[in-house]
Design brief:
The protein is mostly beta strands and 186 residues long. The protein has a single domain, classed as Beta Barrel (Porin). It has an eight-stranded antiparallel beta barrel with strand order 1-3-4-5-6-7-8-9. The longest helix has 15 residues.
């Protein structure tokens, strides 16, 4: 009899465990550091604001559609800085995710993404601003920290290659850099 009660309790707990199976939405911010590989670049890190929709094909992985606003100030006298709006699609996995773990602690995450970005500069004087498109390919390494029953924080470091069609703010076409972000996921 005791075994039957224990099995019944365990089966109820297993069915009641929180599953990831619905759409997730995230809002976040961070730091964008473009042109880190260019020796003569004069761009300073700037703020990044990000919004994403996450679609789970399975419980331990998600497809991520992300957009936002990125900006960086320029050390060149003729420009105040550059700004960009990225649109990327990626795949993220949580290798330590366990389906019936209940409230989770810290889960590492890995991901890749690609897409495009609209970039423009802000001239300091009355020069004409220039804009261009760019290709974006990046990787993600980070962690998800549970902050309740249905919300979590994602802390992500993303090295990314950004190849611009033409130069903006007197910089080269290679704006390869790093993006650091902290997002609230619900």
């Amino acid at each position: 009899m005791k075994s039957a009660v224990i099995l019944l309790v365990l089966s109820v707990l297993a069915v009641h465990g929180e599953e990831r199976g619905s759409l997730e939405f995230s809002l976040g911010g961070g730091l964008w550091m473009p042109a880190l590989l260019e020796s003569d670049a004069q761009l300073d890190p700037g703020p990044a604001f990000l919004v994403s929709l996450r679609i789970p094909p399975s419980l331990g992985n998600v497809f991520v559609i992300q957009t936002g606003y990125l900006s960086a100030s320029s050390g060149r006298d003729a420009y105040d800085g550059i700004a960009g709006i990225p649109l990327t699609v990626g795949y993220r996995m949580y290798p330590m995710y366990r389906r019936f773990a209940g409230p989770r602690g810290i889960e590492p995450l890995l991901g890749i993404y690609g897409g495009g970005m609209l970039l423009w500069d802000s001239p300091a004087g009355n020069q004409d601003a220039s804009s261009t498109g760019a290709a974006v390919i990046g990787a993600e390494l980070g962690a998800r920290v549970g902050i309740g029953e249905s919300a979590s924080l994602d802390l992500v470091v993303s090295p990314e290659w950004v190849g611009a069609g033409s130069s903006v703010a007197g910089e080269g076409k290679d704006l390869t850099g790093l993006r650091l972000s902290l997002s609230v996921v619900f």
